[in-house]
């Protein structure tokens, strides 16, 4: 069973909405109460890179300082939790390769995420990133090197030349880069355990994996976030890795950030179902497999250049339910009461003490349901708008003032209600997140919904001016 897994890690994705340090401390405190063993931290541009890598630091908000990073680790350690950094070393390097001085290191010019595996400079860059990260994690013994979703690999000019030699494949190209990086890591830090995402290896045969040189170097982490995860297929994939000689394996589930790229409030049941499927997988594995643990991922963006997914506070009920599902082997009434005990019974129960960010979560849920209401979403389909203030009417500025004034007051009322709720959200959000996060969140979730209403009110004012003395 997964409940006997060695480690439960919670993934902190800092490539969007990086929490203020005080809030991270509160979150770590909650995670430890939930029985989490460690953090898998994806810093991206929030790491205080220095020297030639200083340009990788975020510009919309300040990266964490060295002191802040050390304090986060100290605090996690004091709660019995280890911190495992995740540094992308092949795919999803958008935060690096978007910078002009790094453009020449892309596999193809139009893909910002994938590193060209043929340039020594690329491996040097990756190793310098890792060196700085390891240095700021005293006593570190596990490192996650990413390597998922290496899009368009093999399509660059140098790759095409390399692949033109008989017998060479894109699979080998992928494996040779990862092996090069893993060997360099082992040379620099012989004691380091290296974990990587598994998806690029899923279609590879056992023989290809055996011959790759990766066996004994890395531990694959198989990720699958869907509520209807295919148990048999997942078990046979894990067994394949094991038969290829990689018997130390990890799995990864999800508590947020995997429903759609722009989801605002997570559906707890969906994520609990994902964990129930993982429990079935764990129960079906042969004894040859040495399951190291599970990373419960919480994506904050699908990638560096996509919009924000659900923020942490609205996803804490989902996280608590997922962890208790793993602890109890099912989402039983006992698991539910443990969640209530650790978070308070519902989102709307009073008090902020157990559940850091509760009020922000509540105000997001409220605003989200208002923004998704038919009254607002379908305002332009309203009978009066379609009947008396159509695009035809607007262009000709020929309107019935009596009816258009009614439309105007209805639209204005909606705008006022939304505005009040937005201000409540903003006020709470900046307590936990940088101002730039609040700004981005509002532009993503609120602006597209209110701008049609604002346009209607402006157009009505302009038309009525033409019609009323």
Walk me through this protein's architecture:
It is a single chain. This protein is an alpha/beta fold and 469 residues long. The chain has 2 domains: 8-349, TIM Barrel, CATH 3.20.20.80; 361-467. The protein is built from 18 helices and 8 strands. It has helices spanning 21-34, 66-78, 94-97, 120-135, 157-163, 170-188, 206-211, 231-243, 268-283, 312-328, 333-343, 358-371, 374-377, 383-388, 391-396, 401-432, 435-445, 447-467; strands at 7-13, 38-42, 82-86, 142-144, 193-197, 218-223, 248-256, 290-298. An 8-stranded parallel beta sheet has the order 3-2-1-8-7-6-5-4. Strand 2, helix 2 (66-78) and strand 3 (82-86) form a beta-alpha-beta unit. The longest helix has 32 residues, at 401-432. It starts with 6 loop residues before the first strand and ends with a helix.
Average pLDDT works out at 94
- The helix/strand class is alpha/beta
Order of helices and strands: EHEHEHHEHHEHEHEHEHHHHHHHHH
Give, in spatial order, the strands making up the sheet with the most strands: 3-2-1-8-7-6-5-4
CATH superfamily of the largest domain: Glycosidases
Q: In one word, what is the shape?
A: globular
How is the main sheet built?
8 strands, parallel
Number of strands: 8
Instruction: Report, as a whole number of angstroms, the end-to-end distance.
Output: 78 Å
What would you say the CATH architecture of the largest domain is?
Answer: Alpha-Beta Barrel
Helix proportion range: 40-55%
Instruction: Write down the CATH class of the largest domain.
Output: Alpha Beta
Number of helices: 18
Which stretches are poorly predicted, pLDDT < 50 over at least 5 residues? none
Return Rg in Å: 25 Å
